[in-house]
Amino acid sequence: MKLRIAAALMLSGIGTAAYAQSSVTLYGIVDTGIEYVSHANAAGDSVVRMPGITGSMPSRWGLRGTEALGGDIAAIFTLESGFNMRNGTLNQGGRLFGRQAWVGLNTPYGALTFGRQYTMTFWALSDADLLGPDIYGGTASFDQYLPSSRSDNTIVYKGSYAGFTLGATWSFGRDAAGTGNSPGQGTCAGPTAGSGPTCREWSAMLRYDRNGYGVAAAYDQQHGGPGAMANMFDGTASFAFTNPSDTDVRMQLNGYGHIGDLRLGGGWLGRRVDTVSSATPNVHSDQYYLTASYLVTPAFIVDGGVYHIVNSRNDTRGTIAALRTTYLLSKRTSLYAQGAYLWNSDKAAYTVSQGGGGTTPAPGAGQLGLMAGLRHSF
């Protein structure tokens, strides 16, 4: 009996020690409001709605955890689900954990993780575009892959050394579920036997951050495969992207810094879609942006940006000017009001809003977007 009691006490102690070295955190954001968009269809009609995808931030909930394994090594994981506030449905093509679903190890030499994860496009852009995934964030309005730059079946390495951050991803099949990561681009599950490049994606990043200033460069390459399409988001039709040798490349250079309470960010994003078939076009675009954020008071923030894109092949150009004000009711709850105006060239039909589709104007039409909303984080 004494041996049994002693063994039970030892097991209890081991369980307590293991529990003390691990943690799981529940977190999330709920964000919605009312939006007005002018010229929301080819007839020039406007729409007033509760947007489905994003407000100032996309709504989500998640679990993240860590367990110390000794020797400065820890097991880590994240499960993150995006949802539509207006009707409670799942985003990211209906996936339960469509935003993130990965597990890995964190070591003194960096983190190695496996699952559905962000590519380096996301991490390189995160500090330079100060509006980020806002409903009127111009980089995302011109290329809706950017706030959704995730891939399935992915191995990721990311490590920081003396201010430098190195990152790389490798996906064996980048988009395997639902309706795909981005509108009009289909899915691309891969791989297939005998064709390793099918639906492959890889990305790399190098950035340097020090004392509130930083610069970043990234390269992201997708290969074609069954079910894949390429969408330029300028009102032209998506086109086939099914050959494993087809490539969709996104490159970027950017930087950010501050002058007192004024933060600045800006950069260049280049996209190069090249296909093997002569029946489908090779389409290249270049996007430029400058953003700023100013802390007027500890509870009041004003930020905005100007974004411009040029697509020479399709003869489409667009410019977005956006402004947002945020009032912090507490550390977790805020009210915001924002607006943006989009200028389309004669053949372009970009849309100012990422609010869930259905707001594509006629080619050449300008668009005004206005929104007031409430955000709470937990």
TrEMBL record:
Please provide, in alphabetical order, the Gene Ontology terms of the cellular component aspect for this entry.
cell outer membrane; pore complex
Recite the UniProt keywords alphabetically: Cell outer membrane, Ion transport, Membrane, Porin, Signal, Transmembrane, Transmembrane beta strand, Transport
**Which terms does the record give in the GO molecular function aspect?**
porin activity
Domain (Porin) ranges: 8-346
Membrane topology, as annotated: Multi-pass membrane protein
Location within or outside the cell: Cell outer membrane
Q: So which residues are the signal peptide here?
A: 1-20
Biological process terms from the Gene Ontology for this record are:
monoatomic ion transport
Question: What binding partners and quaternary form does the record give?
Answer: Homotrimer.
Designated name of the protein: Porin
